[in-house]
């Protein structure tokens, strides 16, 4: 009996070890028309085409997946990229060498990057998932690394996302069984429908797209009540954890500010837009509310698609002027070239930059976002053409929903800190430099934000603070796990209040030099205990 048990352990260990060696990689074909044919036999795919060289190269491998994806595909390489899962890494090299007439590039996917989850409605960039939903490019969710967040959680029905906007049809397939309209609102041309879908539309149901926090519940209400935000307070008192406000006005009310404090104390985070007037009009001096109230996560828009401006240089035919559009991490949608010289780094057209100011906390993708209202109201697949901020806010709202879903006891006043600490620094992006201090901490990264919550409470790996430079804001963080700070700066007016149950390690390239208005407070408190357990999509993740 003991021998049999030992054999079982050895078998399980061997199976696990082999599974971990499974190779994931991307392959880029030489021709967009190339589509190899496969037939599924048992658990694996068998090549059924008539290319002898390809057949020979594939003969010695077990292939689980060989499918087209738009993920990580440059402009000229759209529809030429394949995602492959096979039993050996050598398959990629074999194809590049022995089927070089078909494939021009390959890239292995690192073990850490295999920790993703994709539902069956994850669009054209889907890799491990089978997209049976809308045929749209969801590369903006890829840039935010949302599948890495979904590895840990896809949301929870116990976490309610509030939508203060136009009405949301609670019987729609994407909202049915998980939503309520608390206060009636207007249709607003379907504005609320698209916002709700982006934040928390149902995922893995082979329809539409997956919202960021797609298993979260939704409470919808109207918008307005600018002086006291009573419709938001009502949601907070009903247990809503995060409220999306894709609206605002340019007037401050102290009563509304106090309402924000009340909601934060009640455990509710408010996300709101900095609004849409162009920078050429506002010049960083125009503030909108509730976004600019203290305690609100204020968002604005940035671009995401092309990694380098050289990938999307276009020409204005009438004037012969070259320009760029939708370049990743640029805070404007379009830009031009001094002296029309495309060898120089472009500058941003201020008219293509949405309202920025010192109250903005974070930016996120805005152009090319799926507009679910067009499908609901007009039976049409459509995406946003410009960079309005309305669609940005629900990306942040959904991220916050995932954070609360993973660890329901997460303090509401620490959410903004995590969002900022895990954002992508865009200060060194040359075209952004004239707008420094007005686009918040940088570009939203949902995957890192959710992973940081996991690391803070899983007690497996350190929670890492890295790769940012902060000279303002108050950061508060309480971690059960140890914390590692590296390649990080807190200077001038930045304040960091960090408590860990275990140790805090300050590693290389870390600068902790606050000025007269800043403060660094690091504390070890061995009496700290988790207030609740992590709620994982798959509990076995703790064993990874």
UniProtKB/TrEMBL annotation:
Leader sequence residues: 1-19
Coiled-coil features, chain-numbered ranges: none
Entry GO terms, CC: membrane
Superkingdom, taxonomy of origin: Bacteria
Gene Ontology biological process: protein processing
Domain Peptidase S8/S53 intervals: 176-431
Transmembrane regions listed in the UniProt entry: none
Protein keywords: Hydrolase, Protease, Serine protease, Signal
Database matches in InterPro entries: Peptidase_S8/S53_dom, Peptidase_S8/S53_dom_sf
Catalytic residues (positions): 165 (charge relay system), 191 (charge relay system), 390 (charge relay system)
Gene Ontology molecular function terms on file: serine-type endopeptidase activity
PANTHER family: NEUROENDOCRINE CONVERTASE 1 (PTHR42884:SF14), PROPROTEIN CONVERTASE SUBTILISIN/KEXIN-RELATED (PTHR42884)
Family stated for the protein in its record: Belongs to the peptidase S8 family.
Protein name, per record: S8/S53 family peptidase
Organism: Aequorivita vitellina
């Amino acid at each position: 009996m003991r021998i049999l048990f030992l054999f079982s352990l050895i078998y399980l260990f061997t199976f696990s070890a082999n599974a971990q060696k499974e190779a994931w990689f991307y392959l880029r074909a030489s021709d967009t028309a190339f589509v190899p044919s496969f037939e599924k036999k048992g658990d694996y795919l068998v090549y059924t085409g008539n290319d002898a060289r390809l057949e020979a190269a594939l003969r010695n491998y077990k292939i689980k997946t060989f499918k087209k994806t738009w993920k990580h595909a440059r402009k000229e390489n759209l529809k030429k990229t394949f995602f492959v899962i096979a039993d050996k890494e050598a398959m990629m090299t074999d194809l590049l060498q022995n089927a070089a007439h078909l494939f021009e590039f390959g890239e292995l996917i690192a073990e850490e990057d295999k920790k993703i989850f994709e539902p069956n409605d994850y669009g054209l960039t889907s890799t491990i998932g089978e997209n049976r939903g809308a045929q749209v490019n969801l590369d903006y969710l890829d840039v935010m690394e949302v599948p890495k967040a979904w590895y840990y959680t896809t949301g929870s029905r116990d976490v309610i996302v509030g939508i203060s906007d136009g009405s949301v049809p609670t019987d729609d397939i994407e909202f049915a069984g998980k939503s309520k309209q608390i206060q009636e609102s207007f249709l607003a041309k379907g504005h609320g429908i698209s916002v709700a879908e982006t934040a928390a539309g149902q995922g893995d149901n082979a329809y539409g797209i997956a919202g960021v926090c797609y298993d979260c519940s939704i409470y919808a209400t109207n918008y307005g009540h600018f002086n006291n935000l009573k419709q938001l307070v009502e949601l907070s008192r009903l247990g809503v954890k995060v409220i999306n406000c894709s609206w605002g006005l340019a007037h401050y009310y102290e009563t509304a500010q106090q309402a924000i404090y009340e909601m934060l104390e009640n455990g509710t985070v408010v996300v709101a837009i900095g609004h849409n007037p162009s920078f050429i009009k506002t010049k960083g001096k125009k503030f909108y509310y509730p976004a600019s109230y203290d305690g609100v996560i204020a968002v604005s828009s940035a671009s995401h698609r092309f990694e380098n401006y050289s990938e999307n240089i276009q020409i204005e035919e009438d004037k012969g002027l070259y320009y760029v559009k939708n370049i990743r991490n640029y805070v404007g949608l379009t830009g031009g070239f001094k002296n029309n010289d495309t060898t120089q780094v472009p500058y941003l057209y201020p008219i293509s930059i949405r309202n920025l100011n010192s109250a903005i906390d974070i930016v996120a993708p805005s152009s090319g976002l799926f507009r679910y209202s067009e499908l609901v109201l007009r039976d049409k697949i459509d995406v946003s053409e410009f960079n309005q901020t309305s669609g940005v806010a629900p990306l942040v709202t959904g991220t916050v929903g995932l954070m609360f879903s993973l660890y329901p006891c997460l303090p509401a006043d620490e959410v903004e800190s995590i969002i900022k600490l895990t954002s992508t620094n865009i200060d060194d992006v040359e075209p952004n430099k004239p707008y420094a201090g007005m686009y918040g901490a940088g570009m939203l990264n949902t995957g890192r934000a959710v992973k940081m919550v996991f690391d803070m409470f899983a007690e497996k790996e350190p929670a890492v603070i890295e790769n940012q430079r902060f000279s303002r804001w108050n950061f508060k963080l309480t971690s059960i796990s140890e914390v590692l700070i590296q390649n990080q700066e807190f200077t001038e007016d930045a304040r960091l209040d960090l408590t860990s149950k275990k140790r805090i390690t300050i590693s290389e390239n870390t600068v902790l030099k606050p000025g007269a208005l800043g403060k660094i407070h690091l504390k070890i408190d061995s009496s700290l205990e988790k207030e609740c357990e992590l709620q994982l999509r798959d509990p076995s993740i703790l064993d990874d």
